[in-house]
Prior knowledge:
Subunit structure: Homodimer.
Number of domains: 1
Shape: globular
Helix content: 25-40%
Radius of gyration: 17 Å
Enzyme class: hydrolase
CATH class: Alpha Beta
Structural class: alpha/beta
Number of strands: 7
Strand content: 15-25%
InterPro entries: dITP/XTP_pyrophosphatase, ITPase-like_fam, RdgB/HAM1
Distance between the termini: 19 Å
Number of helices: 5
Largest sheet: 7 strands, mixed
Binding site for substrate: 8-13, 74, 155-158, 178, 183-184
EC number: 3.6.1.66
Order of helices and strands: EHEHEHEEEEHH
Oligomer: single chain
Amino acid sequence: xxxxxxxxxxxxxxxxxxxxxxxxxxxxxxxxLEDLDEVPEIIEDGKTFAENVHKKTTALxxxxxxxxxxxDDSGLTVAALKGEPGVYSARYAGDHDDDANNAxxxxxxxxxxxxxxxxxxxxxxxxxxTGKEPLVxxxxxxxxxxxxEIGDNKFGYDPIFYYxxxxxxxxxxxxxxxxxxxxxxxxxxxxxxxLPAWLKQ
Length: 201
């Protein structure tokens, strides 16, 4: 059976990808890093989301050359902070410390208003397979950085990312609401549209 390895151990992310791919009725065995016997070291030292994604897929391809491999990289960028946190989003103020990361963004934007608080969530997805050019897509959501954390569904920068069309922060959205408009959801939508033609290459 054809295997797809998703370069994550996040069960929620794997489920979201599985649900997106289900629209194509692919007979694939979908695995996460948790299902693998050997997981190579992946050093994410790229300067862009796309570079980091490619590092993930190519590292796994060395060990699993016959499988399809998908990876994503996501983050928050704030123009007024010269694109920070960017590729350092997960470790902006410490290793995966969401509270500290949010506090650092809020502190750096203290006293700033209006357009200076504009921000964007970005996801870049890459899918590779033997003999094929990488399929790379991205998804974006524009928002505004709040002055304090708002919302109970705390994940990453969600409590400080205000989404104007719904007049809520991402942390005030249900999982279903967020999936409909999220940057990863938008990237997955593009991937699903492009996948049938890519597979025929």
